[in-house]
Amino acid sequence: MNFLPNDTLAGYARTAVDLRARMVDYHRSPLAAKYLQAFFGSRLANHPSPSPAGMAKVLTAVRAITGNPWRFGEPYVIAPAMTAIIAAAAAALDLTGEVLPADVAPDDGGVLFLPEPIYHRSLSGEVSSIGAITWARTTNTGSGRSFWAIAGWADHRDPHDPAAVRRRQQLTERPDLARQFGPYVLTDFTEIPIGQPVDPRPDLPVLDAEDRDWEPAPDGRFCIDETTTPMRACAAVAYAFWRIQAQPLATVAAAPLDRAARRRAVRASIRHDTRVVMLRRTHPLAEPTDGEPKWHYRVRFVVRGHWRRLIDRDGHPYRIWINAHVKGPDGAPLLHGEKVAVLAR
Fold first, then answer.
1. Is the pTM of this model over 0.85?
2. How far apart are alpha carbons 278 and 47 in whole angstroms?
3. What band does 343 get if pLDDT is binned at 50, 70 and 90?
4. Phi, psi of 108 (to 5 degrees)
5. Cβ neighbours for 109, distance < 8 A, ≥ 6 positions apart
6. Of 1, 227, 5, which Cα lies nearest the Cα of 127?
7. Cα dihedral angle (161, 84, 79, 317), rounded to 10 degrees?
8. Where are the domains of the chain?
9. Phi, then psi, of 25 in degrees rounded to 5
């Protein structure tokens, strides 16, 4: 794993600088160009074949879209306590038909680190991890269409990732090639339009049981099943993070950086203002213990996590994530539309 378990804020910042510097070096290597050509070449197989000059232009743009956030993007680290909340919000997200403004993201470009990866299952049943996400606000020079280009990256050395095991098996005979990869490997790429309705996800092809290798997710880790969600996992996680990091549910702390890490960031010409997004802790209400115990009847409810739609002062719709919590009975009435289950009577 790239991050140490239960690290400090300074440790997160130091590791983030190291990982970004190594990814910047990787994107300058010939292997990165070949990998991008193979990665996007397979995704353009069903489209009309572009001319060599057109393909070169596409690859140049893709290298900038996937590489610049590591160097110039705003860096964030999701604390492990927030991972399950972000994953649950992403799994419940459906943006179909919604129009997203240009300021929905905290910055025009950024990189999000997940020390505790989120896993997702593809249509074929294979499981892979999301250890980092990059985004970049992009405009198509031909059509003028603006969109968020979102890339999902897997931790190259994640011991729990089945996809990492498959990559190591494929590179068994090429140890020299395995050493040339960066700490993260590009595994997914998608777009979210800006100022235009989000298109529904195309109908998924039906696969026979023989064509589906249903892999189990690592124990204790959150896995998003893309066969049942209306969005790609990396886009859903990115949007869930954008929204939740601005809510009172989360607290964003600027991580201190030691002198050595700051110097390395300056040498590599990368941003070093890492922010750690943590769960805001609240003090539970204590039950009164004075006086004689009395018989009482009370009902408590578990409110499931869900997205709540709101309207801002300018009349624009937006969402906030309501995390799963216990409500009732004193001073916590249920709100209309909340989905609950009886926890105790």
1. no
2. 42
3. very low
4. -65, -25
5. 68, 69, 72, 73, 74, 134, 135, 136, 137
6. 227
7. 120
8. 9-278, 300-344
9. -65, -40
